[in-house]
Design a protein that fits this description.
alpha/beta; TIM Barrel; binds ligand GBH; signal; glycoprotein
């Protein structure tokens, strides 16, 4: 005789079978491979971090107020022709004068954490630590205190693209001394804010700063050092990061008990033709250039990947050089850098196809020639306002797995993920972003639940529309809309904010059955 309890159990099983046989997709018309794209119901591990991220220069404004010193983005954006429509971040979202409203949005979303960055030259106008600007320090205390008051944890980036101009004049990140200047700045911040801040990020996206700022010259400081800039700047930044990590580890960890790491940005590189061995190798080469060349020193053996060293070495030789263009670490430096991370910070936005490209020997070598790769995309992939950003949810899961396969069970925080829509008439119904978040977070869920990736947190980029670097305010990434024509910089929730709030409340995407049981 079946007992009533068993009968209910059978019904539940039956219902589960029915619901899992009706496949659900987020982008039904584009990503509808049942194996790859089927929506997964389920929730993230308990205690999962739900956040949103911003960066000082992109939101604060008040560029020369209350004793703040100039930084490289102030200088760069004030040069005509460097940014979209010559826009700058002089006012941006005016977050310097809107602490309360910003924290209110964080509360509305139900975030557990808010990731923002400190403006180095707001705290130290010249960058050097002998001359502090108390008003700048107070601003960050006010923000941090308001967050803590609302039980939201601050997650603080020390450096997000905005080097004090004085330090740039001494060579910027091409100057070896930056390692020590950065360490001194970091030391001050741990000491000043560390009793309240338990998650630290040293440098946001070293590779992006290096390639855009010191090789292509399209980001501040706008230097062009083809073939050399990227490698030299990444080299210095990795050492600067490592020193800051050790400072925290030795002087503050025991009393403050926080975590500290660095943030890398990466596309997913998919072979253009998975049957073509050269494309398969080119895709892996790109992953190593883009992510491995920074992750290997820290999460691997302390050194750059052998393949990357060999490729740059061979190219350099073929270019007639007797010394490789890629700097190398001494054994002591490798020791210094290896293991300097408490988690893996990952910014991810998009995927690209990679095909093999025959090496080109141009009169002036570039890092792009070193890649020996050709990029493309599938025309069906939804296009964001940013040219480089195609929406490809499944690439996210593959990237998370690649990190696990290469660097083991390291806890991963996705420190940025999001999508841009063009500037235009006020439209709070941001369908592309809503679908982007649902599908990308769903792929993260698959990585966590099915693949066993140790994913512990997720930060949406970004809390509010802001100054998108060289693109000015022409590309909007915010969960909240900002009216840049309004002196009050009024913020309004977009639909994606409501969607994200619900995902956070549910800690993922529980099935109807799961939701009922939890009631
Ligand atoms: C992040 O970088 C940044 O951390 C954040 O500040 C930014 O707002 C956000 O992404 C959105 O862009 O002009 O074709 O050479 C992400 C990595 C690196 C992607 C620079 C775009 C420029 C491509 N970004 N890249 S291109």
């Amino acid at each position: 005789m079946a007992r009533p309890g068993m009968l209910i159990a059978l019904i539940v099983v039956f219902q589960t079978l029915i619901s899992s046989s009706t496949t659900e997709f987020v982008f039904e018309d584009v990503f509808n491979d049942p194996e790859r794209d089927t929506f997964l119901h389920g929730t993230f591990p308990e205690g999962f971090i739900w956040g949103a991220a911003t960066a000082a220069y992109q939101i604060e404004g008040a560029w020369d107020e209350d004793g703040k010193g100039p930084n490289i983005w102030d200088a760069f954006t004030h040069i005509p022709g460097k940014t979209y429509d010559n826009q700058n971040g002089d006012v941006a979202c005016d977050s310097y004068h809107n602490v309360e409203r910003d924290v209110e949005m964080v509360k509305e979303l139900g975030l557990t954490h808010y990731r923002f960055s400190l403006s180095w030259s707001r705290i130290f106008p010249t960058g050097f630590t002998h001359q502090v600007n108390p008003a700048g320090v107070q601003y960050y205390h006010r923000l941090i205190d308001a967050l803590l008051e609302a039980s939201i944890q601050p997650a603080v980036t020390l450096y997000h693209f905005d080097l004090p101009q004085m330090l740039e004049e001494l060579g910027g990140w091409e100057n070896e001394m930056m390692v020590l200047y950065f360490q001194a700045y970091a030391d001050f911040c741990f000491n000043e804010f560390g009793d309240k801040v338990k998650i630290w990020f040293t440098i946001n996206e070293p590779k992006v700063i290096a390639i855009q700022g010191y090789e292509a010259g399209i980001f501040a400081p706008g230097k062009t050092r083809p073939g050399y800039g990227t490698y030299r700047v990444v080299h210095t930044m990795l050492k600067a990061h490592a020193r800051a990590w050790h400072t925290y580890d030795q002087k503050y960890r025991a009393t403050q008990g926080g975590k500290i790491s660095i943030v890398f940005n990466s596309f997913w590189s998919e072979p253009a033709d998975p049957e073509n061995q050269a494309d398969v190798e080119a895709a892996e080469r790109m992953r190593l250039f883009e992510l491995g060349s920074m992750a290997n020193p820290i999460f691997g053996n302390g050194d750059y990947p052998e393949l990357v060293k060999a490729v740059v070495g061979n190219m350099s030789r073929a270019q007639g050089l007797t010394v490789t263009r890629m700097p190398s670490f001494t054994p002591e430096e490798q020791q210094l850098i290896k293991g300097t991370a408490d988690f893996f910070g990952l910014n991810h936005y998009s995927t690209r196809f990679v095909a093999y490209k025959k090496p080109e020997f141009n009169p002036i070598p570039t890092v792009y020639d070193d890649f020996q790769a050709e990029f493309s995309s599938d025309p069906v992939w939804p296009q964001a306002a940013s040219e480089w950003l195609k929406v490809v949810p499944w690439g996210f899961r593959r990237l998370l797995n690649w990190i696990k396969n290469n660097y083991g069970d390291v806890p991963i925080y996705v420190t940025e993920n999001g999508v841009s829509e063009p500037d235009g008439a006020l439209n709070l119904d941001d369908e592309l972003r809503t679908k982007y978040y649902r599908s990308y977070i769903n792929e993260a869920l698959k990585a966590s639940k099915i693949d066993g990736v140790n994913l512990q947190g997720y930060f949406a980029w970004t809390l509010l529309d802001n100054f998108e670097w060289a693109s000015g305010v022409s590309e909007r990434f915010g969960l909240y809309h900002v009216d840049f024509n309004d002196p009050a910089r009024t913020r309004r929730a977009k639909n994606s904010a409501l969607t994200y709030t619900q995902i956070i409340k549910d800690n993922g995407f529980p099935s109807d059955e799961q939701a009922k049981v939890e009631l």
